Amino acid sequence: MAGMALIEAVGNTPLLPLRRVTRDLSPDVKVYAKAEWFNPGGSVKDRPAFNIIRTALFEGYLLPGMRLLDSTSGNMGIAYATFGAALDIAVTLAMPSNASPERVAILRALGAEVVFTDPLEGTDGAIRVARQMAEEQPNLYYYANQYDNPANWQAHYNSTAPEIVEQTQGTVTHFVAGLGTSGTLMGVSRYLREYDLEVEIIATQPDSSFHGLEGLKHMPTAIQPAIFDPAVPDHTEAVTTEAAHEMVRQLARQEGYFVGISSGAAAVAALRVAAELESGVVVTVFPDAGYKYLSDEALWEARQAS
């Protein structure tokens, strides 16, 4: 397959320890995060994006001359565009028009076609536009449909989860992940439950429908992904935008981890879980680095003022 060198770089990301932000925890509690910005497209979304493309090609849904179409808040689109460029697949993306300038610039640099959608409708609005485009031109578009496509969670079942087990030597006791498509949580949790039924699964989501946590969904008020099973997480941690922003700054200044906003939310939830333990190994996922958020005034002005 063309682009094999790029494809082989997906996964096997480092598992980083959190040290200074965990100093108030029990000494027998460890907290780690998968550094997903080490993927070639710069985020955790490389895993499902490639698996969705590979599956569609193998099963004959994505044919020569067709364009891959999906909705995105940014990272999945960048992953599609990265592999599309490597594999000579045209990519069209529906994305809210308030996406960060960094995301838009990266997508254009990679050659993707971007259809901007109503920013007030968020990712749900982008989903509706992509669905309509697919319905109107089924011969032009392969609608990847990341929110409903089982190849999404299967990517994490087959790669992210086994890596976590190997990197913790099977000692993971708690897994924490944000809810966007829910693919990471669904795939990793299914594998971990098969590996050890005692592993506790914690979902993370914004505390309300109106929030600034890009890539995450407030499930009670959003279009719920078909791949999401609400019975899978043992419980859910609601995180405010402000708490996630503050954690992003803490991780940068105290750990040297320059991460994105959804990573901040994951860390907030993971530390809450860890604070309740006497012993254990808590693992979360940091979906991306902070470079695509540099134009976010609400985040970086607060950083300067703090």
Please write out the topology.
Layout: H1 4-7, E1 15-17, E2 29-35, H2 46-59, E3 67-71, H3 75-87, E4 90-96, H4 101-109, E5 113-117, H5 122-136, E6 141-143, H6 150-167, E7 174-178, H7 183-195, E8 200-206, E9 235-239, H8 241-255, H9 261-275, E10 280-286, H10 297-305
Parallel strand pairs: 2-10, 3-4, 3-6, 4-5, 7-8, 7-10, 8-9
Antiparallel strand pairs: 1-2
Short description:
The chain contains 10 helices and 10 strands. It is an alpha/beta fold and 306 residues long. Helix 3 (75-87) links the parallel strand 3 (67-71) and strand 4.
Describe what you observe in this structure.
Helix content is 41%, strand content 18%. The protein has 306 residues and is α/β, with parallel strands linked by helices. The protein has 2 domains: 184 residues, Rossmann fold; 98 residues, Rossmann fold. The strands form 2 sheets. A 6-stranded mixed sheet has the order 1-2-10-7-8-9, with helices on both faces. Helix 7 links the parallel strand 7 and strand 8. The N and C termini lie far apart (49 Å). The model has no long low-confidence stretch (mean pLDDT 94).
